[in-house]
Design a protein that fits this description.
The structure is a homodimer. Chain A is α/β, with parallel strands linked by helices. Chain A folds into 2 domains: 160 residues, Rossmann fold (3-Layer(aba) Sandwich), CATH 3.40.50; 121 residues, N-(1-d-carboxylethyl)-l-norvaline Dehydrogenase, domain 2 (Orthogonal Bundle). In chain A, helix 2 links the parallel strand 2 and strand 3. In chain A, helix 4 packs parallel to helix 6, helix 9 packs across helix 11 and helix 12 runs antiparallel to helix 13. Chain A is elongated and about 65 Å long. The model of chain A has no long low-confidence stretch (mean pLDDT 97). The interface between A and B is large, with 70 and 70 residues.
Chain lengths: 296, 296
């Protein structure tokens, strides 16, 4: 298929490469020229703008940092929608507010262009391996058209509902992950301060109702003082902010999410925005001057 | 072994029965006579007090609702310590503040009686099946002595540290469980209010970093509107209160735990204290007048 790919950052580059490997023809754009060159070497055709990439494509995928960049890449004067023919498809795989996804979807519909939001989870390693989890919002017809492309980039793809539903699902995911990490932090700090070995506590509770993917992935990182990303606190804060603004627009108060979002604001302000989100636990540590480490 | 068992409630009765099945001789006490009779029918010898039960036993186990009842059952004038010979062992399997466990442990040590705190998780079904998870605090020697008894009542037993460590571990567990349920509630309410099917969202996220034992056990209960306990909100609130008071005594602030404890206070005040703790999610539902149900 002729595919446009806009946004060749840490996530976009390996995703574009996996589409090339699957035999698709890619026209790519990113304002950063070395990123374009890296994907062109793998066989992609460079374009001068998102508009030009979309003009040559049946499906144009965007993968950029947040809502403003999505609006620029799709709705801007040099954006994909300006170049997309009626009947073609634009799929935004960035993680953004579902409200922005719906706004972009309406603008596309007004020009006869189909739109789907399809954010991913799994981070750079799973983008490289082509094993991302993809959460999509849009029509069943577009989802069917995208199935092969999603299979090239991910190991699972779920159609969660209409346009915006992909990002709502992603935000639900990010709320749970952030709050679960913060809860783990409080529990491990309490146990460590009481003189217990946090590793023993982790092993004692991981098989029961307190067990979680977060506990198994992040407790060992905290105990080993390894906060190498992985997924950065700065980006998780963006997701929680998007969750809170979307929730507010629907009249949904989220007190725990709000508290954890403010904890992340504090960590970013304290210079920890580029640490892995397991370092959310350091907020509880700092408050009681207690590092979660093994004794001795 | 000659065992005293004090506290024959919903948990204590099946635990005592499993010790009888394993071939131990039990002397039992509970102020509620029918509860004593139920265990006496299975072969236990009734005693007139915890003191009398301990006087006949090598190991005396207590299983009562909270700290004040533990102090009464062990340190009171008719308590186990008054009857226990030097060199015998008292093991409290209730879930209480680690501070109370340490106080009781010191009083026992002053009389030459060994003490262990060994709270459990798993609830009534696992008490009946003898598959509780046991978190112990005390000396390695007492833990070795107790190993066979713990095997009769549970499927796992971990020595987490000295006296008090069992309850610290249990509280770490309860913090994570309560906060994870509350986070799940916010995520599912947001998704449902946005028009998504909460079952689809649950299935889309359960295999990733948001996955947890809480999500798999409790999301289906919330979606099915089934809040039959299980573990009651009232008891989970008691555990969070014990966590906060122990943490405060150690100079450890726990903001998320504090917020969720107050949510549980609100639910108990609203008449929901006897619902399963999955109903923690109803707090987020009420705030936005949105029930987490499948559409249609």
């Amino acid at each position: 298929m002729d595919i446009g790919f806009v946004g060749l950052g840490i996530m976009g580059r390996p995703m574009a490469r996996n589409l090339l490997k699957a035999g698709h023809r890619l026209t790519v754009y990113d304002p950063d020229r070395p990123s374009v060159d890296a994907v062109a070497e793998a066989g992609a055709v460079p374009a001068a703008s998102a508009r030009e990439a979309a003009a040559r494509s049946r499906v144009t995928i965007t993968m950029v940092p947040d809502g403003p960049e999505v609006e620029d890449a799709i709705l801007g004067p040099e954006g994909a929608l300006a170049g997309a023919a009626a009947g073609t498809v634009i799929v935004d795989m960035s993680s953004i507010s579902p409200l922005v996804a719906q706004k972009v979807g309406q603008a596309c519909a007004a020009k006869g262009v189909e739109f789907m939001d399809a954010p991913v989870s799994g981070g750079e390693p799973k983008a490289v391996d082509g094993t991302l989890s993809i959460m999509a919002g849009g029509s069943p017809e577009v989802f069917d058209l995208m199935r092969g492309l999603f299979e090239a980039m991910g190991s699972s793809a779920v159609l969660a509902g209409p346009v915006g539903a992909g990002n709502v699902t992603k935000l639900a995911n990010q709320i749970i992950v952030a709050v679960n990490i913060a809860a783990m932090g409080e529990a491990l700090v309490l146990a460590t301060r009481a003189g217990l070995d946090p590793e023993t506590v982790y092993q004692a509770i991981r098989g029961g109702l307190a067990g979680s993917a977060v506990l198994d992935a992040k407790a060992p990182m905290v105990i080993a003082r390894n906060f190498k990303p992985g997924f950065r606190i700065r980006l998780h804060r963006k997701d929680l902010r998007n969750a809170l603004s979307a929730a507010e627009a629907m009249g949904v108060p989220l007190p725990l999410t709000g508290l954890v979002e403010q904890i992340l604001v504090s960590l970013v302000a304290g210079g920890r925005g580029d640490l892995d989100h397991s370092a959310i636990a350091t907020f509880a540590e700092d408050m009681s001057k207690t590092e979660v480490r093994r004794p001795g």
